[in-house]
Design goal:
single chain; 114 residues; alpha+beta; GMP Synthetase, Chain A, domain 3; three-stranded mixed β-sheet; 4 helices; 3 strands; 54% helix; globular
Length: 114
């Protein structure tokens, strides 16, 4: 699969899965769940779905809920995509936004110390 086609395929999965998760999860208004990245293996058998969750203390609860319902989410995705085979989805917690926030705070502290 070409790089451009793989990128479009990942974006399609991200878009459709975002809609499914938004409707499926039913999270509280103070919780933000975002799909930050989708990486599909070249063999199209699996897709790693990186999820960012704010506040971070809700991450375990949300990921447990997603992984517990992964079969239903996968079935909804299978119906939405007109591609066969649809890759098996694997949810992973994306810590990058958290780490970026820590770096920003450290930079602010250094800036104020000078």
């Amino acid at each position: 699969m070409s790089k451009k086609r793989a990128q479009r395929f990942n974006e399609l999965i991200k878009k459709e899965l975002g809609k499914i998760i938004f409707n499926f999860l039913d999270v509280k208004p103070d919780v933000l769940v975002t799909i930050t990245q989708v990486l599909t293996n070249p063999n199209l058998f699996t897709s790693d779905i990186y999820i960012s969750i704010y506040p971070p203390n809700k991450a375990k609860e949300i990921l447990d809920k997603l992984n517990h319902s992964i079969y239903q989410i996968q079935q909804l995705l299978n119906r939405k995509l007109e591609v066969r085979p649809v890759p098996k989805i694997i949810f992973k917690y994306d810590k990058n936004p958290e780490e970026a926030d820590k770096v920003e705070k450290l930079l602010e502290e250094i800036k104020h110390e000078k």
